[in-house]
Design a protein that fits this description.
Layout lengths: L1 H17 L7 E7 L14 E6 L10 E6 L3 E6 L4 E6 L13 E7 L7 E6 L4 E5 L5 E4 L21 E2 L8 E6 L3 E6 L4 E5 L23 E6 L8 E6 L3 E6 L4 E5 L18 E2 L6 E6 L3 E6 L4 E5 L14 E7 L10 E4 L3 E6 L2 E6 L26 E6 L6 E8 L3 E8 L3
Antiparallel strand pairs: 1-2, 1-28, 3-4, 4-5, 5-6, 7-8, 8-9, 9-10, 11-12, 12-13, 13-14, 15-16, 16-17, 17-18, 19-20, 20-21, 21-22, 23-24, 24-25, 25-26, 27-28
Length: about 425
């Protein structure tokens, strides 16, 4: 009876939010592992089904986007404000104070201009601000991931401008565990951070004495192998990266153990290689060791490691080359895709579909059995095929983001 009353109260609350006015309103919903308050619900509970955050959590401002990181989440409002919740052990929330985590969204301090884009890595965050479009970073686990130079702080608790990007207009940044990739308005790709697995795309260069130089970059550096290529979309995985050019070609670089990236017989994974087997594409997403692309026709392709069924092809077999993800997507086009550590989410016709790792057996809790539920289907078991996430209200999905083992979405009411 207590559980029913709680659900009934929650449903009445949702109805009040969604019917409060007749104007278009956007909302955030989150689900999955709740450790460190990454879901922003005011507690540490994991959620096996989507839970909405109240509009008051963001000053009643509409939401533009969401970015799920390792154990934290960022929110961008339509007014250019950034909010953060979750783990703050490396300052990734960009808030003042010494709190190790927060359980509710708090506005990020020190952004002097309105933000237009956000990105969350495992231990660090980024915002691109308004008219000048400069990248600002907070919370780095390792000094080089900040892009602030060798003399920069090892931990950056508040937003700090990447001064070496002054004069460049940055339109997109993708963050991973220990590296970052940015794209200028002219289509130039830059990368920085840890590059030991070739994920920066700069190759393994030797010094004049024959020793390999450091593979890390403390400041953003142009990817020379992509000069002359106009990049429009980038993604960063655990140890690999990918980008799409203006013609729809896919380039990948980084870790290629067990053929995870589909390089075929390419000799050098430390520099970008084009995936010839993939149709012309619009968008790319990278997970732990898998990659997904949306083609210009709205088809979804995936390849790489397939633990827990994260490729969505109905098996756990790894695929070295792009494999079309069908199921519901054979009848309707895919609009957005996001990859987590070992799970994937996509939007098709306003609905969210998830598949892969459900969260049981494999998180970093002491007993190894911390609940996940990042697929949002009411359990923490794995799903090998895309399965639609159900919501308590009639909503249309605008954006979805996968973190390590949680998922978030921006939705708008579909009530007429």
């Amino acid at each position: 009876m207590v559980m029913w009353n709680r659900a009934s109260t929650q449903l009445r609350t949702y109805k009040r939010w969604f019917s409060s006015d007749s104007t278009r309103r956007t909302y955030a919903a989150l689900w999955g592992n709740g450790d460190f308050g990454r879901l922003g619900l005011g507690n540490l509970d994991s959620q096996w089904r989507p839970r909405f955050l109240p509009p008051s959590a963001f000053g009643n401002h509409g939401l533009k986007s969401i970015a799920c990181g390792g154990a934290h989440t960022l929110f961008l409002t339509e007014t250019g404000r950034v909010y953060a919740t979750g783990l703050n052990d490396f300052g990734q929330l960009g808030i003042s104070g010494n709190d190790n985590y927060t359980m509710e969204p708090i506005e990020v301090s020190g952004l002097k201009k309105e933000a237009v884009q956000i990105s969350a890595g495992y231990h660090h965050s980024c915002a691109i601000t308004g008219s000048g479009w400069g990248a600002l970073h907070v919370g780095k686990e390792l000094k080089w991931t900040a892009g602030l130079g060798k003399k920069g702080q090892s931990v950056v608790p508040l937003p700090t401008k990447v001064e070496c990007l002054s004069g460049l207009t940055i339109k997109m940044v993708a963050l991973a565990s220990e590296h970052s990739i940015g794209v200028t308005d002219g289509g130039e790709a830059l990368s920085w951070g840890g590059g030991g697995s070739g994920q920066l795309g700069h190759g393994n260069q030797s010094s004049i004495l024959g020793f390999l130089r450091s593979t890390s970059e403390y400041t953003p550096r142009r990817i020379t192998k992509l000069e002359g290529v106009k990049v429009k979309n980038v993604a960063a995985g655990f140890l690999h990266s990918a980008c799409v050019d203006a013609n729809g070609s896919i380039f990948v670089f980084g870790e290629r153990a067990i053929g995870r990236l589909g390089f075929g017989e390419a000799n050098n994974a430390a520099t970008p290689s084009m995936i010839a087997e993939c149709p012309w594409s619009n968008e790319v997403a990278c997970g732990g060791y898998h990659t997904c692309v949306i083609t210009s026709g709205g088809e979804l392709y995936a390849w790489g490691s397939n633990e827990n069924g994260c490729l969505g092809v109905g098996s756990t077999n790894a695929f070295h080359f792009p494999e079309r993800v069908e199921g519901p997507f054979s009848r309707s086009p895919v609009e957005k895709v996001s990859c987590g550590w070992k799970h994937t989410a996509a939007i098709s016709e306003g609905n969210i579909y998830t598949w892969g790792w459900g969260g049981s057996h494999g998180t970093f809790s002491e007993d190894g059995h911390s609940s996940g539920g990042q697929l949002g289907h009411g359990s923490d078991v794995d799903y090998g095929n895309p399965t639609m996430v159900t919501f308590e209200k009639n909503v249309k999905a605008l954006q979805v983001s996968c973190g390590f083992n949680h998922t978030g979405a921006i939705l708008e009411s579909a009530e007429t």
